[in-house]
Specification:
The chain is of the alpha/beta class. It has 8 helices and 16 strands. It folds into 2 domains: 2-198, Formyl transferase, N-terminal domain (Rossmann fold, 3-Layer(aba) Sandwich), CATH 3.40.50.170; 203-291, Formyl transferase, C-terminal domain (Methionyl-tRNA Fmet Formyltransferase, Chain A, domain 2), CATH 3.10.25.10.
């Protein structure tokens, strides 16, 4: 099948790789333009652009697809279908209509739950027991299109990083399966019940709120690992918490209960397991405390 692939971050790479491995003709790849990154703020191509170039596939990085010239160039590729995975740009109707079979999206949730930009993080923060991937036919609404297939997976104690990696692989396999036999995957209208929106993550949300129950604080840690990283502050320094566990005990929210960095919450307590100080590598909490004691009674912000 002649395909246009549209995606940008790591989440989208397995789907591109799977399409190539399945023998599809990827006519072109669309991804967002290179962004400044690193200490030198040099322009860095996205993971999808690098993967496409490794396969010798033509890459397009328009700032927008609203321009008629861009839309005409897209249509001229003559794709039967466009496969989209975390592309990051709105697709105008002219683009949605250009491929004969439309545009199919790999979305990291069990629609209609968690439509929007951050489904994995929102599922963890909400304490969902399961999540998954949905293959949907795209339309103008935000993740409102009919569903062709989906697969579930337990959230368990996974971080957003681990869960995103898992869903990316499951989504890639599911997309290849759908394209192999579209007749077996007729579109189904999404139900009106159970709609929720996964709003984009604001970095301010990653500050640990010990005024919540310890269960919710631990979810914060997992939802923001590895990036942007949940954090607390001590004496003006930011400490990123990349892993944590629930701990016995209770006390004032945000105050350490012992010398092992057990922190009181509104109910229960939490103990960081993997911590990173600014400009330093991540380390286990015991190693951190050997170099920087945080005694019982310390107030964390």
């Amino acid at each position: 099948m002649r395909i246009i692939f549209m995606g940008t971050p790591d989440f989208a790479v397995p789907t591109l790789q799977a399409l190539v491995a399945a023998g599809h003709e990827v006519a072109a790849v669309y991804c967002q333009p290179p962004r400044p990154a690193g200490r030198g703020k040099k322009l860095q191509p996205s993971p999808v652009q690098l993967a496409a170039q490794a396969h010798g596939i033509a890459v397009h990085t328009p700032v927008s697809l609203r321009d008629a010239v861009e839309q005409a160039a897209f249509a001229a590729l003559g794709a039967e279908v466009a496969v989209v995975a975390a592309y990051g740009l709105i697709l105008p109707q002219a683009v949605l209509d250009a491929p004969r079979l439309g545009c199919l999206n790999v979305h990291g949730s069990l629609l209609p739950r968690w439509r929007g930009a951050a489904p994995v993080q929102r599922a963890i923060l909400a304490g969902d027991a399961t999540t998954g991937v949905t293959i949907m036919q795209m339309e103008r609404g935000l993740d409102t299109g009919p569903m062709l297939a989906r697969v579930e997976t337990p959230v368990d104690g996974k971080t957003a990083g681990d869960l995103t990696t898992e869903l990316a692989e499951k989504g890639a396999a599911l997309m290849v399966s759908v394209l192999a036999d579209l007749a077996r995957h007729p579109p189904r209208v999404q139900p009106n019940e159970g709609v929720t929106y996964a709003h984009k993550i604001d970095k301010a949300e990653s500050r640990l709120d010990f005024g919540h129950a310890a269960v919710q604080v631990e979810r914060q840690v997992r939802a923001f690992a590895p990036a942007p990283g949940a954090f607390f502050e001590l004496e003006g320094e930011r400490y990123r918490v990349l892993a944590a566990q629930l701990a016995p005990g209770s006390g004032a929210p945000g105050v350490t209960l012992d010398d092992a960095l057990t922190i009181g919450c509104a109910s229960g307590a939490i103990r960081p397991v993997l911590v990173q100080r600014a400009g330093r590598p991540a380390m286990d909490a015991a190693a951190l405390l050997r170099g920087r004691a945080i005694p019982a009674g310390t107030v964390l912000g």
